[in-house]
Structure formats: structure tokens, C-alpha cells
Write a structure and sequence with these properties.
By secondary structure, the protein is an all-alpha fold. Helices cover 71% and strands 1% of the residues. A two-stranded antiparallel sheet has the order 1-2. The longest helix is centred in the N-terminal third of the chain and has 31 residues.
Length: 333
């Protein structure tokens, strides 16, 4: 196999692997820019995924025949359910860390545990309802609407295969990342949000509502991350939900935040690189199982190297927000 053919085979798979990570990383960057460190992103992605699955399952089971399925409803119901589930997770995190000022690390880890347990519980419940022979729920009819590709992609040769052969949620991830980058760097609201993340006391003294900014950024970030779970189930997994199926993609999303140096637009390229590193072992012949597991560590190893590099350079624009992970006590201002 030539180098070009290997790249053509690897790149689309790297993109599909990277899109859930991009959603999670973009959501976490939005959250961290407000000073909140949400280690619950893996749990948020789980809840977002299972919420969409529940919505799709209820819609499919309400139909007498799949011929009656409406494409708009088949897409919008899971999306709205994902938004609702992810938003609730964001609100819970904000209530505990912003309002009650509980330690952010503890809350984030607890929410990851809760989110995974929530997804596994309702996933197992749906599996029992469908009485499946395998431990999974298949929503192939709904997934068919989420996996629709651009109709002219096949006629564009290699270019179409590399850049035009993805579903609308994949392109939405890229657009959302660009919009978040524009918001953070080019708008007054983004400036206020970054000010809150850097020094909430100064932002408060300037008349910026610190708590509202943190709630806004964290809830928006949670919704964006939740779409990563929905994409994984409906597109990457072709509508099949299986418990513990997400693997470590949520943690990869958090690692990608550091790798992309807190820049959503840079996260687009980094997510594709992460996706490629995550599956590159499939394109290396003759690897043992232990060697394959070592190759799966590459995204984390590269992240550690980048973290060391940006720490050595010590450039402010490549560092995280100064008040990241710290609760704000107004009375101590």
C-alpha cells in the first residue's frame, strides 16, 4: 500500500475518531475560559449520548411502521434531548462549584462517575426493553438520517473522500469550534468571559457579573460536549448504544484542551491528529496486542510533551486561564 493510499484510508477515519473529541474539547475550552475546570466532561458526553438515544428510542417505538418516520423529527428529537441532558449536567456542576463553591476537581470527577453510571443504567434498561441477544440497543433507522453524506461527495474523487464524505454533525463540530474562537477573541462577551477566567475579582470590579459568566460558559460548554456523545452513537457507531462503548474519548477531549493551548480553532486540526494517533496502530502491520495498547497511549504522550514545551516557553498566550479551577469568593476581593 502506497503512502498516498494509506493517507486516504487513514484521514477519514481519523476525522470520525476526532469529531467526538473535538466536541468535548471545544465545550471544555469554553468552560475553562470562565475559570471553571470541568473534569466531568466524560460524564457529560455520556449523558448527552444516552439522552439522545432515549429520545430516538421513544420516537421509534411510538411509530406503527418505520415508513411513518419523519426525518426532521428523527433528527430534532435526539438533538433536543441531548441539549436538555447536557444542560442539566452543566447546571448541576455550576450550582455546586459556583453557587456552593465546592472544590471543582472533586465535583468534576464525581460528575464523570455519575454520568457514566447514568448512561449505563438507562442503557441497560433499554437493552432489557428490546430483549436484545447482544448487550446493545440499535437505532439504525434514526442513525440513517444522521449519517447522510453530501450527495456530490462521490463524484469529487479523492478530495470528496477526504473532505466531503462526512455527516452534518461533523461539519457542525468544525463550525461550532470556529464560532467559539470568534466569540472568545472578537466579541465583547468573549472579552468579558476571558477576564473572568483570568481575574474574577478585577472583572467583578469592572461591573462584569462573574457568576452569570461562569454559568453561561459552563452550560454552553456542556451542551457542546454533549453533542460529542450524540455524534459517537448516531454517526460513528451507526446508532448502536453499548455500555462502556465510549472508551476514554472524554479524557482525550480534556487532554486536547492542553494540546490545542485553549484555542478552539486550533482544536480542529489537533482533534484530527488525536484521532489519527488513536487508530494509527491499525495501519501498522504485525503489531501484538501489547504493542497496540502502547500505540493507543500516543495522544497522551504527545499531550505531555506539549505541556512540557509550553511550560518551558512560558508564554502567556499559551497558558490556561490564571484562575482556572479556583472558586471566587466576592467577600475576599
Amino acid at each position: 500500500m502506497s503512502l498516498l493510499s494509506t493517507f486516504v484510508a487513514l484521514f477519514p477515519r481519523a476525522v470520525m475518531q476526532g469529531i467526538p473529541i473535538l466536541y468535548g474539547a471545544t465545550g471544555e475550552i469554553m468552560t475553562e475560559k470562565s475559570g471553571n475546570l470541568n473534569l466531568g466532561i466524560p460524564g457529560v458526553m455520556y449523558v448527552g449520548g444516552i439522552s439522545g438515544v432515549i429520545g430516538a428510542f421513544l420516537y421509534e417505538t411510538s411509530l406503527e411502521s418505520f415508513d411513518q418516520m419523519n426525518g426532521f423529527l428523527a433528527i430534532m428529537i435526539p438533538i433536543l434531548c441531548t441539549i436538555l441532558g447536557s444542560l442539566v449536567m452543566g447546571l448541576i456542576y455550576c450550582f455546586l462549584t459556583v453557587t456552593l463553591r465546592v472544590n471543582q476537581n472533586v465535583v468534576g470527577l464525581a460528575m464523570t462517575t455519575f454520568g457514566v453510571g447514568f448512561g449505563n443504567f438507562f442503557g441497560a434498561s433499554l437493552i432489557k426493553l428490546v430483549d436484545s441477544d447482544v448487550p446493545s440497543v440499535a437505532l439504525s433507522h434514526t442513525s440513517a438520517y444522521f449519517t447522510v453524506k453530501l450527495p456530490f461527495a462521490s463524484s469529487c474523487g479523492v478530495f470528496g473522500e477526504l473532505f466531503l464524505s462526512y455527516s452534518f454533525l461533523a461539519y457542525a463540530a468544525v463550525i461550532i469550534a470556529i464560532l467559539c474562537s470568534f466569540f472568545l477573541n472578537k466579541t465583547r462577551g468573549g472579552l468579558h468571559l476571558r477576564a473572568v477566567g483570568e481575574n474574577p475579582a478585577t472583572a467583578d470590579a469592572a461591573g462584569i457579573n462573574v457568576n452569570r459568566s461562569k454559568y453561561f460558559a459552563t452550560c454552553i460548554g456542556s451542551i457542546i460536549a454533549g453533542f460529542g456523545g450524540l455524534y459517537y452513537v448516531m454517526d460513528y457507531a451507526n446508532g448502536v448504544w453499548s455500555n462502556e462503548g465510549f472508551g476514554d474519548r472524554g479524557w482525550l477531549a480534556i487532554a486536547l484542551v492542553i494540546f490545542a493551548i485553549w484555542k478552539p480553532n486550533l482544536g480542529i486540526l489537533c482533534s484530527i491528529l488525536f484521532g489519527g494517533l488513536y487508530i494509527v496502530y491499525l495501519f501498522v502491520p504485525g503489531l501484538s496486542l501489547s504493542a497496540q495498547e502502547l500505540f493507543k497511549m500516543l495522544p497522551y504522550v504527545v499531550t505531555i510533551i506539549v505541556l512540557i514545551a509550553i511550560s518551558i516557553k512560558d508564554k502567556k498566550e499559551n497558558q490556561g486561564p490564571q484562575s482556572l479551577g479556583l472558586s471566587y469568593f466576592r467577600e475576599e476581593r
